[in-house]
Request: fold
Amino acid sequence: MALMFQRLARNFIKNGYYPTDSETTQRILNALAPAKAGGMRIIDPCCGEGIALAECKHHLGLASEAFGVEYDAERAWHAKSVMDRCIHGDFQDCIVGKRQYGLLWLNPPYGDLVSDKADTGERGGKGRKRLEKLFYQLAMPALQFGGVMVFIIPRYSLDAELAAWIARHFDRVRAYAAPEQQFKQIVVLGVRKRVGAANGADATEAMTRKHLDAVSGGAVLEELPEEWLDAPYAVPAAPQGDAVFAYTRMDPAQLAEEIQRYRCLWDQFGLKFGRMSIQHRRPLRAPSDWHLALLLAAGQVSGAVTSSDGRRFVIKGDTFKEKSVRSEMQEREGGTFSEVRIHTDKFVPVIRALDFTPGPDYGRVVTIR
Reply:
């Protein structure tokens, strides 16, 4: 089967970006299949130009949704044209729902973490600090139980620590040599499991660890087969509800894109904000303290007012909670005494006014409690 989107890929190498070649992509797709009818979510936290994940979406069916993140602006905006959702930014600044995605395509940047890395905290493990390990830790929680991981890394980056992580979190783990060996890549496939949930988990984990340790140690590795003859890695349907996929930082271009995407607020701008111009009716009688507290809590006491003597104020009302403390002395058995403090919550209405009357008090802030 010919790939649909490879003709769109420019496949340039820049800033640690090593795109997945078309032959490796095709062979991985041969090993994947949808688990059952229903929408799927697939994600690539280092999606580059989005070509690999677009091919996955086409292979799994149009019911699947493709989500991606890319740091480079040029590649990210290209990916937006072939994916359902793409964020231009740092994956560490993204909010991605846990266990909401059925396929994790992870071809992270390759290289060592620099000593002054920003905002990575203690991530990266205790072994060799590698970008591949950092992105594994960041991205793996997004994969739902039963979801499929496609992990494409250089063989030399698979150390004992990373092998232990993969063995702990995944079943059906198999590592293959990529058909294209320009970057000495391997392809690790696995299905996410519940840690410690199944009988025999320790034995399976030990076997997986032995397999990955052999790969790390330089054992002869089978090439990813051109024709997949085993049971396919089934991508499960997405869980109920909307996907959590957001960015904590926003640039003007992406903000404009989001406004165009979610127009419901702006189409109803007048309806949502027009009520601010509605004049409130004065109460028929002076409000009691209880009514005043409700008005303040609802934000109905605000705006410009004129007092009976002609002074002008801009006022804003609010209600806050404070505690009153009362102490009592209680006698214990044996003639000793103890102090008991009673804390009582009390809601206090407050009006703050800014005096706009020309004169010596102009600009004075008045607080009424």
Summary: The chain has ten helices and 15 strands.
